[in-house]
Amino acid sequence: MSSVTSSGRYRTGDLQAVESLKIPEGGDTVKIIRELFSWVESFAIESINWYTREKISKARWSRFLRLSAVLSFALGTITPVVAVGMGWSRQAIWGYGIIGIGACCVAFDRVCGFSSSWMRYVSTAISLNRQLVMFQASWPRIEARLAQESSPENFSEAVLELVKFVDVTSLLMEDETLAWVSEFQNHVVQLETGSIPALPQRNQ
Fold first, then answer.
1. Were both Cys, which of 11, 28, 102, 168 would link to 69 (CB 3.0–4.6 Å)?
2. Dihedral of the CA atoms 19, 47, 160, 145 (nearest 10)?
3. CA distance 204 to 197
């Protein structure tokens, strides 16, 4: 498999524009298509690595906030029972405050989108990796055809396959980004209207 060099698309943590690959004129078509494949492959690999890396912090925050919410709801529910049982009726009200902390954890997670981002990143990384593996598996056939007959038609077909792959991977990332935009807009509306996430309901 061709070596992959970093193009710096995610050097600052955000997507950066990358210059097109410089291809010398009059070169061997097989060598040119291999360089194009390596450039396109690095595009996909960098994207997968970015989603895989970024999901780690999202997962940590999501687990922390959700676990804190569960513990707060549990402790807040038990506190009044224990307080009344121990004869500390005045302290029973602390249970509502503890439940409120749990609700704040849930609201913070929803507004910042840690859990939803985690799920989106995992799903997008898996989809991108699937497309990459399928493309890598089918590419030797395309390259072999060009090596067997270095015609303009075969070269154009190979380039078209590269373009299709870039388009598919770009659409996957675009869908993830649009999902984030929609989610963020909904959260802004919730903040502006003063609405807050409902508390989890107990199973009857």
1. 102
2. 110
3. 20
Non-local CB neighbours of 135 within 8 Å, separated by 6+ positions: 44, 161, 165
* Cα 8 from chain centroid (whole Å): 18
Query: Contact 119/199 with Cβ under 8 angstroms?
Result: no
Tell me the C-alpha distance between 40 and 47, whole Å: 11
C-alpha count within 13 angstroms, C-beta hemisphere, residue 76: 17
Whole-angstrom Cα distance, residue 198 to residue 159?
Answer: 52
- Any idea what the Cα angle at residue 145 is, between residues 143 and 149, rounded to 5°? 120
| Cα–Cα distance, 1 to 194 (Å, whole number) | 54
Residue 26 pLDDT class (50, 70, 90 cuts): low
Which stretch of 36-45, 63-72, 75-84, 87-96 has the lowest confidence by average pLDDT?
Answer: 87-96
Q: Are 85 and 114 in contact (CB under 8 A)?
A: no
Alpha carbon distance 6, 198 (integer Å):
45
Domain ranges of the chain: 29-193
Q: Tell me which DSSP letter residue 91 carries.
A: G
Structure tokens at 135: 């493309």
